Amino acid sequence: METINFQNFRIEAENICVDYNGKVALYDANLRLQPGQICGLVGMNGAGKTTFFNALTGFVNISKGKIRINGESVRSAQKDQTIAYVPQNEGIDSQFPISVWDVVMMGRYGSMNIFRCPRESDVQAVKDAIERVDLTDHLSTPIGNLSGGQRKRTFLARAIAQRASILLLDEPFSGVDIRTEKLISELFIQFKNEGKTILLSTHDMIHVREFCDLVLLINKTVVAYGETSEVFTPENITTTFGGISPDFLFGPES
Amino acid sequence: MELCSFLTLDSFITDPLTHDFMRKALLMSSLVAAVCGFLSSYLTLKGWALMGDAVSHSVMPGVVVAYALGLPFSLGAFIFGVGSVALIGFIKQKSRVKEDTVIGLVFTGFFALGIVLVSKIKSNIDLHSILFGSPLGISLSDVKQTIFISLLVVILLSIFRKDLMLYCFDPRHAKTVGINVFFLHYLLLTCLSLAAVVGLQSVGIILVVAMLITPGATAYLLTDKFDNMTVISVLSAIISSLIGIYVSFWFDLETGGSIVLAQTFIFLFAFLFAPRYGIFKLKKLFAGYK
Question: Which CATH class is domain B13-285?
Answer without folding.
Answer: mainly alpha
